[in-house]
Amino acid sequence: MHDVIIIGGGPAGATAAIYAARAKLDTLIIEKAYFGGQMAIATQMDNYPGIDSISGNELGENMINQAKKFGAVAINEEVLDLELDKAVKKVKTSEKVYETRTVILCMGASPRKLGLPNEEMLTGSGVSYCATCDGAFFRDKDVAVVGGGDTAAEDALYLSRFCNKVYLIHRRDTMRASKFLSNLVLENPKIIPVWDSVVQEIIGDIMVTGLRIRNVKTDEISHLDVNGVFIAIGNIPNSELVKGKVELNEGGYIKTDENMKTNIPGVFAAGDIREKPLRQVVTAASDGAVAGQAAEKYLTENNFM
Ligand SMILES: Cc1cc2nc3c(=O)[nH]c(=O)nc-3n(C[C@H](O)[C@H](O)[C@H](O)COP(=O)(O)OP(=O)(O)OC[C@H]3O[C@@H](n4cnc5c(N)ncnc54)[C@H](O)[C@@H]3O)c2cc1C
Predict the structure, then answer these.
(1) 127-231 and 2-111+235-301 share a CATH fold
(2) Average pLDDT of every residue of the chain
(3) For the segment 210-254, what is each residue's pLDDT rounded down to a tens digit?
(4) 15: which of 141, 210, 256, 285 fits an S-S bond (Cβ 3.0–4.6 Å)?
């Protein structure tokens, strides 16, 4: 019987493991792919205080090694099913069924993709899903943002601070973003809306050099010379596993209180998978710290320790 099982080895899960293991909880962290999570594919991490230049992979490894140093056990298995409603919770993986008193859900989120042939190959080489993370690499360059919602508007405004030109490619002829953000976008001389249009091809062998655009009303094809394309068509929370088991919001994100508690006693959620305003490494780590400590408090209060 474990005190805590953490599902997901990104920054939220690794930080939860650090806090839980430091509190001497029997801590198991289960990751199905790479420890480090989404950041494992980022060549350089930005916005993490005190760390100037580090790859996402290295930061992820540092975090999980720190958790192991305090006694957490980290394994590579995929969690396939969960029983969460009783005091003893069951976590079923591809290998076996684990029992635990508490579960911290840290399965993260995945950016929605365009699904174009070059997209994956050029990710990190001009294709980005995170303007806040990668925007600074495109200083004085021409870039495009794909999308028409709040995130696309915020990304375009953010990029306009240091990029030369920002094309905003949207499949409709008006923005879906709030009126306030839409007005800021439309008044910004650096942002050039490309209405009624979709990206048909991302061009580039090693780095992005341009985009082939199709007008959805006229079928006309045009070309944009850009060095970067920021895809802001939404995120998909990896919450399928807990659908119908913990409370989710309309977008599928897990609802928690400020202590990362879900609506099920002994079940916590941290990081990108939960409903929150900013999804970054620093906020994932912060959630993980709070969740690790909240799990300890739950175990103490319920006389499980
Ligand atoms: C390309 C890219 C670059 C980024 N750059 C930055 C940056 O520079 N600075 C910054 O602050 N943020 C950046 N971000 C955002 C940041 O990476 C995320 O906010 C952060 O990783 C979220 O952490 P998390 O632990 O909540 O989730 P994730 O990092 O998504 O980790 C979740 C983990 O759970 C695992 N998992 C999911 N389901 C299961 C299952 N059933 N069983 C077992 N394991 C499972 C996944 O494999 C994954 O490893 C970037 C994101 C991307 C995609």
Answers:
(1) yes
(2) 95
(3) 999 999 999 999 999 999 999 999 889 999 999 999 999 999 999
(4) 285
> Alpha helices, DSSP H only, in 199-280?
none
- Is the CB of residue 33 below 6 angstroms from any atom belonging to ligand 1? yes
For residue 42, pLDDT beyond 80: no
User: So which residues are the catalytic ones?
Assistant: 130, 133-134
pLDDT single digits (tens) 45-64? 778 999 888 888 899 999 99
Residue % of the chain over a pLDDT of 90: 85
CATH number of 127-231: 3.50.50.60
SS3 138: helix
Q: Whose CA is nearest to atom 50 of ligand 1?
A: 39
- Kindly state if the Cβ of 12 falls inside 6 Å of ligand 1: yes
272 CB near ligand 1 (under 6 Å): yes
Residue ranges covered by each domain of the chain: 2-111+235-301, 127-231
